[in-house]
Amino acid sequence: MPGAETHDRIALYAAGALIVPGYLTLRYGLGDAPEAAYSGTMLLIGAHLFGSWLLSPDLDLDSKIDDRWGPFRPIWVPYMRLIPHRHFLSHSGISGILRLVYLYLVIVGILAVLGFGAYLLNVDVAYHITLTNWLWDTLRSGSRPAILLIAGVVISDLVHVISDRIDTRRKRMFGRRRKSGRR
């Protein structure tokens, strides 16, 4: 399994590799205007890097990845306890969506607690409801930015899982050759 620095480099190379196909798909495949294709490509790449560096499948380890969250690291402790490393829920290629949903639930939970506190103070604030309604409407309408955000996170997950599998296979191949060479 590659280390965090190797995964970071792979994520940068993959981001660079996404530029041309992302733009061409949006511009000519989906018929976006040049400006929309450019901003959509940047959103896709940004979501890929966010997924790679902050929502990595290795987030379930006590590692450099979860340290990147700084003072917000504790929000990932329940996730780290619930999802074992290399489990299907952690390394499936689409598990980035699970981490996005988890992050969303944490944010909504925090906003709900703040909203309840505001309610106790007779202040009418319901940010958690506003966020949930906006997100639901955005996803239901098939909004291009929402799709690109999810696609970028899924791509980051796939790149990570594929690089893990390639590295594991490489180590097994060279390990077997070395052992068979000693006989």
Short description:
The chain is mainly α and 183 residues long. The chain is 73% helix and 0% strand. Helix 1 runs antiparallel to helix 2 and helix 5 runs antiparallel to helix 6 (127-140).
List descriptors.
183 residues; disordered C terminus
Question: How do the SSEs run, as a string of H and E?
Answer: HHHHHHH
Number of strands: 0
Low-pLDDT runs of 5+ residues are: 178-183
| Radius of gyration from CA coordinates | 20 Å
- Assembly state here? single chain
Number of domains: 1
Q: Roughly what is the average pLDDT, rounded to an integer?
A: 86
Net shape: flat
Report the span from N to C terminus.
Answer: 27 Å
The amount of beta strand, in percent, is under 5%
What structural class do helix, strand and pairing data support? mainly alpha
User: What helical percentage do the residues reach?
Assistant: over 70%
Q: Number of helical segments?
A: 7
